[in-house]
Write a structure and sequence with these properties.
By secondary structure, this protein is α+β, with helices and mostly antiparallel strands. The protein has one domain. Helices cover 19% and strands 39% of the residues. A three-stranded antiparallel beta sheet has the order 1-2-5. Strand 3 and strand 4 form a beta hairpin.
């Protein structure tokens, strides 16, 4: 990441970047789980810190969105900031 830009290789394998608008901390309130048509709420994560990364609205391809998220996950994990396991919370 340089000057608010996160560089990645897009789905055409060309270097591209996304503009990071801001990074902010929030607190989680709960985890919502949908199972067998029911919505369950797990309050065990209440108060856990969340890192929200806000980008400019410049996405035109869903494949690029997946690549950007993977790049961010790898960066946050490598830097030791987060385990970056979205599915585990």
């Amino acid at each position: 990441m340089v000057d608010g830009r996160l560089f990645y290789y897009d789905y055409l394998d060309q270097e591209n970047h996304v503009l990071i608008q801001r990074v902010q901390m929030e607190q989680d309130t709960a985890k919502t789980i949908v199972k067998d048509g029911k919505c369950l709420i797990d309050y065990n994560r209440s108060g856990m810190p969340l890192l929200e990364i806000v980008t400019e609205a410049q996405f035109t391809n869903p494949e690029n969105c997946k690549l950007i998220v993977r790049e961010m996950q790898e960066m946050l994990s490598t830097l030791g900031i987060s385990e970056a396991k979205i599915d585990l919370g």
